[in-house]
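User: My instructor asked us to take a sequence, write out its structure as tokens, and then describe one feature of it. I'm not sure where to start. Here is the sequence I was given:
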Amino acid sequence: MRLSSLADYAVVIMSAAARHCGGVARLNATTLAEETGVPLPTAQKLVSRLAAAGLLESARGQGGGFRLSRPPSAIDLAEVIEAVEGPIALTTCVDEARHDCALDGSCRVKPHWAIVNRAVRGALAGVTLAQLAQAAPVHGGQQTKIVEIA
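Assistant: Let's start with the prediction itself. The structure tokens for your sequence are:
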């Protein structure tokens, strides 16, 4: 299981925006692209999607740009991923609107996928932008990010 590059970049962009939270100035896609290394066209696409999802506020004109719509501690990783990827669904079984599985009528595992899906989404929702914006702990000279999944 792997996130798309776009979802990964959205997390990187939002973490950078969280590090700037509290400042008076708004950020723009160019600044976020330069700071994160995300290609500018991708950063522009992402800030638009994240703003449409209500995670970023945007303003036009002089002093315009983007900023987080809520404090970093109130925005979680699941929200950021869903803004780009749509609802988190590990299998089509979890998506009530879809019934395209050949085993749909006889699958004995299907009822359990919802439990697994809730656990994964819950783990992602348990990580906030405030946590991701902090410097990673240093272990043996290398920085590592540790996310505990219960």
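For the description part of your assignment, you could build on this observation: The longest strand covers residues 56-59. Try explaining in your own words what that tells you about the chain.
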